[in-house]
Amino acid sequence: MRKALSLVAAALMLTSLAACGGGTSSSQPAENPSGSSESAPAENSGTSEGGEILIGVITPQTGSVAIYGQAVENGVRMAFEEINEAGGVAGKTFRLEVLDDKGDPIESTNAYNMLMDEEIDFLLGPVTSKPALAVMELAAEDGIPVLTASATQADVTSYGDNIFRTCFTDPFQGSVLANFTKNNLNLTKCAVLYNTSDDYSAGIANSFQNKAGELGLEVVSFEGYGATDKDFKTQLTNIQSAGAEVLILPDYYQTAALVIAQAREIGLDIPVLGPDGFDGVLDVVNESDVAILNNVYFTGHYFTGDTDEKVANFVQSYTEKYNTSPVAFAALGYDSAYIIAEAYKATNGDTDFAAVVDAMKQTNYPGVAGNVKYGDNGDPIKSVSVIEIVDGAYQLSAKVEG
Asked: Does the pLDDT of residue 33 top 60, yes or no?
């Protein structure tokens, strides 16, 4: 039965690869319209005395969030190629088996079952939160070590102690913004304006409010709006009247651009702080109007212009390899591969699930997207890059702990 199921999995595979050691498969997702491709062995497959460690990877390679999955996979591929070229771990090389979940929970569950039938040693993924939530309960029951590079929803790691993530969580950003307000901006009177119908926005807003209370900051105004609202001047006027020194705006860049423009129109020129959803706001503001974004800050997983040697080397290598600048998902994928390799280094190549999970708990890895270590659960304790917009350009303002 296992062999038969393996054949089915191979037939249904949307993106199967053996990325490490300069394998024969392409470094980009297959363009076959049917979505299928043959699995090619790594160049050095079978040549190592220690054999292989099989990493199952679930990413969206097609569908509305494919851009995220492709970036994660690119980062993962590049990292494992580097690791294998350096000799692997304990005489073993890494081989990848990658399946496309289209960003869909059902597809993700199917992909997980296929990979488990292939007897993978480790699961990397899924990339987005809803597919991740669908898979994690199964993974917890099976005990397999799991690392998601980028699923940020808080509950993702709640199913078992074998589940980890590389990225920070949504609520973690609220804590970081509160620390940045107090320790970097030296401001105390805060206003929060958030989307009451969006879990992402509300979660960050509430997290900021809680952390602000711990730090002795005063939230002088806590305002909300609906998902379809386009006029925010009533809330902004209330914030202005309350004497706020800083505005916390946990939303995505499209809404952020509207709110910030209206804030500047009424003379509310205080700093505006946002989450990673702000990334891209420069793309939706006319070049002649970019001055409205001065004094705007947002959290990021990393910053491509960071002068840190590790970051600079990653950006250069990735750009040369893929002919594009690496977005945050690529950096998180890259770090994830190295975190996995470090865990197997700690076990001396032992692939026993429990041993690898224990090694993952001891992670202390200085990654491109911040130093990663784990506390009481699989959520990383890490620094966050706070990015400032200055005259139409992004700049690294600070690296802040949560």
From this structure: no
